[in-house]
Amino acid sequence: MAKPRTHFVCKNCGYISPRYLGRCPNCGKWNTFREEAVEKPTHSLFGNNTGGTTQRVNFSSLRSKPTLIGHVKSHGAPRFKTKSEEFNRVLGGGIVPGSLILLGGDPGIGKSTLLMQISGQLSDSGKKVLYVSGEESANQLKIRANRLSISDSPNLYIYPETDMDAIRSAINEMQPDVVIIDSVQTVQEPSIQSAIGSVSQVRGVTSDLMGTAKTNGITIFLVGHVTKGGSIAGPKTLEHMVDTVLFFEGDLHHSYRILRSVKNRFGSTNELGVFEMRYQGLKEVKNPSKIFLEERLRNATGSAIVVAMEGTRPILVEIQALVTPSIFGYAQRTASGLSRNRVSILMAVLEKRCGLMLQNQDAYLKAAGGITLNEPAIDLAMAVSIASSYRNISTNPEECYIGEIGLTGEIRRVTRIEQRVTEAQKLGFKRVLIPKHNLEGWQPPEGIDVIGVTTLNQALKIALGR
Q1: How many folded domains does the chain comprise?
Q2: Which residues pair with 259 in a beta bridge?
């Protein structure tokens, strides 16, 4: 009897090697190779060889020919919405039928709670939903549904199962509008001879579900586990195969959660939704700016407010800085929710262009509320907060700062300045510092004083008085 062929697969990136390697040459990780049986080739596009028969999909009626782009008729993707405006916003306006959506996040962050709530909302609106759980029993799912006050809808079905053949049969029999797989790492494709959760299994299951979604117009949500590094477990091709990748973020010690899109073929990748975790489930936060600012101390040093854009939504966030003399030979630079490299660059600019002696100072910066900011427009607020803490001078609590800082100390223009200033005016701010070049071509709203600045020195003199 011939020995079954095997190879070694990196569980982090999916790299295949004929022999074991201690370090993956593709992703550089150590001790990530696992031995797996070589998969048998399949002759179908979206089917699998089960029971000795090949399940083929007939695409003869779907064949297309090369077409001039001018002859192609464009139309927007049809969508159906949930009752959650935050969820709809992140997806680009609603759920696209036939799309494959991957939701990742840390354990216990609320992924299953979110999808159970969405299942209840969709079933109440008349959509047939199949909730497949490979981690919980039917009784556990019912307990969660009762806690979330989800009604006994005739359109919501729960199915505790991990066998892909059984799941495929249930989908073919029910023909639901939406299918939720919780989670993809717990589902097993019987035709693939490897352990559950392995690279081959995850890739095979996702490929099968992608075919089901595209050929039947069924929207499928996949829950994905994450690694210690925060990336979704399994091969990187998993994120390339799906239409949308969502991350559910937040601190387990805080009640607020952020749903962020990092890939979306049907909408923007910069949108985010904010939720508050309660015993009864996740509650939408309609005005996240107010939440992020409600615990701010007035007349505190090292505090500055910035209007950041997350997709199409302006959000006011407090940036806090603590600058103290270093007791070691090398000054520390620590950032939470902000780029550490950006902090180092801004401190170098403050020292070179503004005369602040920061080379012997430890700096700790944080974006309050657990949100992560990464756009250039937050530079001015970060610099003001650092200078405020260093000089021990408080900023005006009714003032906010918007602008990108160049290496020569200039304040550079940013995008969507009208929306940013309008949001600050709505929340009661009386003055805002923006790049001078952003004053061209629009009229600031009444009730807020808009000051254009060209250099960082000029901005610090206005913000801190000297």
Answers
A1: 3
A2: 248, 273
The answer to whether 452 touches 444, Cβ cutoff 8 Å, is no
Across 73-87, 205-219, 227-241, least confident range: 227-241
Q: Which amino acid is at 84?
A: S
Is there a single domain that holds both residue 376 and residue 301? Answer: yes
Which residue has 């009208």 as its token pair?
418
β pairing state of 272-278 and 281-284: antiparallel
Whether 383 and 413 share a structural domain: yes
> How far from the centroid of its chain's Cα atoms is residue 398's Cα?
31
Query: Is there a single domain that holds both residue 197 and residue 297?
Result: no
State the Cα–Cα distance between residues 262 and 270, nearest whole angstrom: 7
Does 435 fall in a domain?
yes
- DSSP E strands in 121-239: the ranges are 129-133, 156-160, 178-182, 219-224
Neighbours of 259 (CB within 10 A): 26
Q: Whole-structure pTM over 0.70, yes or no?
A: yes
Tell the residue number behind the tokens 């159906």, with chain if given.
80
Do 272 and 406 reside in the same domain of the chain?
no
Residues 108 and 200 both lie in one domain = yes
- β 411-412/404-405 pair status: antiparallel
Q: Are 253 and 308 contained in the same domain? A: no
CB 52: neighbour CB atoms within 10 A? 5
Kindly state whether residues 157 and 239 are assigned to the same domain. Answer: yes
271 and 123 share one domain: yes
Tokens matching residue 430: 């009386």
Q: Which residues participate in the annotated binding site?
A: 105-112
Domain of residue 449, residue span: 291-464
Has residue 44 been placed in a domain? no
Residues belonging to the binding site for ATP are 105-112
**Which tens digits make up the pLDDT trace of 275-311?**
999 988 999 988 888 888 888 888 899 999 999 998 7
Burial letters 303-319, b for 16+ CB under 10 A, else e:
bbbbbbbbbebbbbbbb
**Burial label, 328 (beta-carbon count in 10 A; 0-12, 13-18, 19+):** exposed
- What distance in Å separates the CA atoms of residue 373 and residue 355, rounded to the nearest whole number? 27
Q: Within 10 Å of residue 46's Cβ, how many Cβ atoms?
A: 18
d(CA 8, CA 265): 33
Bridge partners for 129 per DSSP: 156, 178
